[in-house]
Amino acid sequence: MKISRLLRSVRRNWLPALLIGAILGAITAVGAYFTTTPTYTATNTVLFEVAGQDEIPDPNVATNYATSLASTYAAMILTPLIMEPVAESVPDGDANALMAQVEVTAPRQNLVATISYTDADEGRATSVVTRTGEELKKVVDSYTAQVDGRPRIVVSKLSVNTLTTGGTQPSLIISLMKGFVIGLLAALAWLALKVLIDTVVHDVTDLRDSTDASVLAHVRSEDDYLTLARAVPFLDAGNPASLLFTSSTDGEGASGVALGTARAMAASAPGQVLLIDADLREGEVTQALGLSDRPGLSHYLSGQAGLDEVIVDSDGLQVIAAGQLPPNPAELLATSRVEDLLEQVRSRFTTVLAAGSALLTHSDSALLASRMGGTVTVVGLRKVRQTQLDEALALLDSAQAHQVGVVLTDPRVR
Q1: 40-164: which CATH architecture?
Q2: What percent of the chain has pLDDT over 90?
Q3: Cα–Cα distance measured from residue 281 to residue 325, given in angstroms and rounded to the nearest whole number
Q4: φ, ψ at 225 (rounded to 5°)
Q5: How would DSSP label each residue in 215-252?
Q6: Full-prediction pTM beyond 0.70?
Q7: In whole angstroms, what is the distance from residue 389 CA to residue 163 CA?
Q8: Angle at CA 189, nearest 5°, toward 18 and 35?
Q9: Mean of pLDDT over the chain
Q10: CATH 3.40.50.300-classified regions of the chain
């Protein structure tokens, strides 16, 4: 994709992308704020006292001795000896789960150990560390030896503190930041997707990526056919002028443009303009004029009718209808009778217009284009894709058709 087209696509789609990002971002922010469940971390600070520590001459040895003794008992916290009684004292307690979830910091020189537990239930978190400290104190009291009539080590103090775990409490700022990130990513993703899949021709700037041909008209209303009709005599389409109106795909309005232009020209030159419905597959012009039961082009090309038999007047416009739709349109249009027909009508009319089928659907128009004085490509904005238009124009080049310009149509206007 060309950079210029990519930038145009971004300019067309930035506002919808912004709206989508804003909506998703707002939903994300609100959801994040109201669905955030806080957790609570309870901490029990345990202070040990060791008897006889001050009687050891070497302070370092005394400290190491006291720390080692306290650490031995702290290591017993995460054992069934302590955790099983704790689990029995709290709702839905499980000793193995608690041993995996309770965190213990071993005492150092200050003989302080910490017991921490996090839970969504503040009361449960507090209860677990409180009971753990109490069970630890019981174990220490039960297992410690006596020195000079007093315990060698005791738990002298238990201090419980419960706080909301950092980052788990609903935060307006964090929720807004999450919403902003999600909204931004959603907007960029949607914009990237639109840029990749939006390959239709939107306007003249997109058209210029495919061709530099003159834009003869942009048909939005009946008045625009008059503009196109006034331009036809100045086109390099032979003398007298003979033009084929075709399109890349079905539904772009080539037959409608041909009919509208022919009517506008016939209004000022009755009897001098001929319109041929060369779309032998759909016959849209024939249907629009109510000529489905008349002999037409298929009858002439197959030798079933003469020229005068297939020409009919429609309010001053001379028309050759499609006739009975044949099973082999391409074969009929490839015969020499097409040249005979064009030679005769050029000698009788000042302008000959033909409405052809879509180029990418069938080969009919490509066969006819090289025999006409010029070809007008009808481009349905927001209907035809860039690649389709490129392929159709390349097909006309390979058929050695003389391309005189393009006409823009809007599918929203009929």
Answers
A1: 2-Layer Sandwich (3.30)
A2: 66
A3: 6
A4: -65, -30
A5: EEEEESSTHHHHHHHHHGGGSSSTTTEEEEEEESSTTS
A6: no
A7: 68
A8: 75
A9: 90
A10: 204-409
